[in-house]
Amino acid sequence: MALGYVRPARPEDAGEIARIQLATWRVAYRRILPRHVLDNLDEAYLARRWSTAVQEPPSGAHRVLVAVEQAEQSYLVGFVASGPADAESLAPNEPAEALGPDVVAVTDLLVEPRWGRRGHGSRLLAASVDLWREDGFARALAWAFDADAATRKFLTAAGWEPDGAARALDVDDMLVNQLRLHVAVPVERPADG
C-alpha cells in the first residue's frame, strides 16, 4: 500500500524538483508551448534556481514543499512553490498595490504525470493553505494556461475561481494565454466529519 505525505523541500531535493518540473512540462504543456522551447529547457539551470529558492528564499513566507510517495522506497513526485504576491502576480496594467500584502501567489504546483490522481496535488495544496493561514494571508492566486484544462479543473474543484484577470505570455514569438484564479484562505481548518 502506497502512502503519501508533504514536507518542506531540502537542498538535496533541488535536482529532483527540476527533473519533475521538466518531465511534467514536457508532458502537460506539449500542446501549449512550442516543442523547441520545451526541448531546450536546461535541467541543470532549473536545479540551480530551485536550490536558491529552497536555501535562500526572499522571505520566511516563500516556501517550496514536496510531495513524497512512500511504498517500498520513497519517491519525490511533486512540489508546490508559493510566496507573497509580487509584480509577477499582477495582470497587465494592474497597479502594484492592487493585490495587497495579504495575498499569496502559487508560482508552481506540479505532480509528475505518472504519479497523478493519487492525492499528491491535494496534499500539497492543503499543506500550503495551512502555512498561508499561519502567515496571515487572506487570499491566494495562481496563473494557469487557458489550454491547461487539468490545472484549471484541479483548482476549481478545490474552490478556486477565475478573478477576471488574463494575460498573454510571449513564448518565443508565440502568445500563450493565461487566466488568474483565486480563493479565499480559510481562517481556520474545517473540522473533519
Number of domains: 1
Number of strands: 7
CATH homologous superfamily label: Gcn5-related N-acetyltransferase (GNAT)
What share of the residues lie within helices? Answer: 25-40%
Distance between the termini: 24 Å
Structural class: alpha+beta
Could you describe the 3D structure shown?
With 193 residues, the protein is an alpha+beta fold. It has one domain (3-184): Aminopeptidase (3-Layer(aba) Sandwich), CATH 3.40.630. It is 30% helix and 33% strand. It has 5 helices and 7 strands, in the order βαααβββαβαββ. It has helices at 14-28, 35-39, 43-55, 120-135, 149-157, and strands spanning 3-8, 63-70, 74-84, 103-111, 139-145, 161-171, 174-184. The protein has a 7-stranded mixed sheet, with helices on both faces. Helix 1 crosses helix 3. The longest helix has 16 residues, at 120-135. It starts with a strand and ends in a 9-residue tail after the last strand.
Brief summary of the model shown:
This protein is an alpha+beta fold and 193 residues long. It has 5 helices and 7 strands, in the order βαααβββαβαββ. The longest helix is centred in the middle third of the chain and has 16 residues, at 120-135.
Draw up the topology in text:
Elements: E1 3-8, H1 14-28, H2 35-39, H3 43-55, E2 63-70, E3 74-84, E4 103-111, H4 120-135, E5 139-145, H5 149-157, E6 161-171, E7 174-184
Parallel strand pairs: 4-5
Antiparallel strand pairs: 1-2, 2-3, 3-4, 5-7, 6-7
